[in-house]
């Protein structure tokens, strides 16, 4: 039970870390700008933020279900059951190095288009949900590493097809929910809140990267070299 709760907390933190990283933060700013068009209607602003987050949640859950279902295929599942703990150590070290920017890769996948965003604008509140789906499908290096190399293995280990990806999705949309609330009720504090998010991101990523490397080293020493067995 403790491991499962720790997994939930980890999934949520990975979602927040994703949301405040530079590339996803840019899409969240675009979402905030979209939501801010309804500034005269606080209820509309809040529901737009909620639907945007739900759009992201749904997208990550569907992707996770497809990937984890693939990993459940007989031969692959048997391989992971046997070697998952051994793979996890180096994998965590690798993710930590990406978070600390000791390694970098150049790739991105985006389905953003002016046409889709215009469709979202037509739908107003419902369009915010479509925007959440579109932006969730836009993977850049840091989001790809966190989602595919961290969240999916975590979900697979705990056999969580739905909850962990959903919690992760909530984390990725949390800044938009917060800013939606600020837009609705305290617009004058918007600039200060945004500056704090940018300031927190660097240290949050560094601390998480360091922890991942530390845990990865422990797993490697324990399950690969048997030092703590």
How would you describe this protein?
The model has no long low-confidence stretch (mean pLDDT 82). The protein has one domain. By secondary structure, it is mainly α. The longest helix has 35 residues. Helices cover 81% and strands 0% of the residues. The protein contains 9 helices and no strands.
Task: Briefly summarize what is shown.
81% of the residues lie in helices and 0% in strands.
- Taken as a percent bin, the fraction of beta residues is under 5%
Number of DSSP strands?
Answer: 0
Domain unit count: 1
Structural class per helix/strand content?
A: mainly alpha
Any chance you could write out the topology, listing elements then pairs?
Elements: H1 2-20, H2 22-35, H3 42-71, H4 74-99, H5 114-123, H6 125-136, H7 141-157, H8 163-185, H9 190-224
Helix pairs in contact: 1-7, 1-8, 2-6, 2-8, 3-6, 3-8, 4-7, 4-9, 5-6, 7-8
Task: Please name the defining characteristics of this protein.
229 residues, mainly alpha
């Amino acid at each position: 039970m403790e491991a499962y709760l720790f997994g939930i907390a980890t999934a949520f933190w990975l979602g927040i870390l994703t949301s405040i990283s530079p590339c996803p933060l840019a899409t969240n700013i675009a979402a905030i700008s979209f939501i801010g068009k309804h500034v005269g209607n606080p209820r509309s602003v809040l529901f737009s933020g909620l639907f945007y987050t739900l759009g992201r949640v749904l997208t990550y859950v569907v992707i996770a279900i497809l990937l984890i279902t693939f990993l459940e295929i007989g031969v692959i599942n048997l391989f992971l059951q046997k070697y998952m703990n051994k793979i996890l150590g180096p994998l965590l070290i690798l993710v930590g190095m990406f978070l600390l920017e000791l390694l970098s890769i150049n790739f991105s996948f985006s389905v953003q288009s002016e046409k889709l965003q215009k469709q979202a604008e037509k739908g107003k509140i419902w369009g915010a949900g479509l925007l959440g789906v579109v932006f969730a499908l836009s993977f850049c290096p840091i989001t790809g590493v966190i989602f595919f190399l961290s969240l999916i293995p975590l979900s697979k280990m705990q056999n969580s097809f739905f909850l962990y990806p959903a919690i992760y999705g909530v984390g990725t949309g949390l800044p938009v929910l917060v800013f939606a609330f600020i837009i609705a009720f305290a617009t004058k504090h918007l600039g200060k809140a945004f500056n704090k998010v940018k300031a927190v991101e660097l240290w949050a990523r560094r601390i998480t990267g360091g922890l991942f490397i530390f845990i990865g080293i422990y797993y490697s020493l324990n399950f690969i070299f048997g030092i703590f067995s």
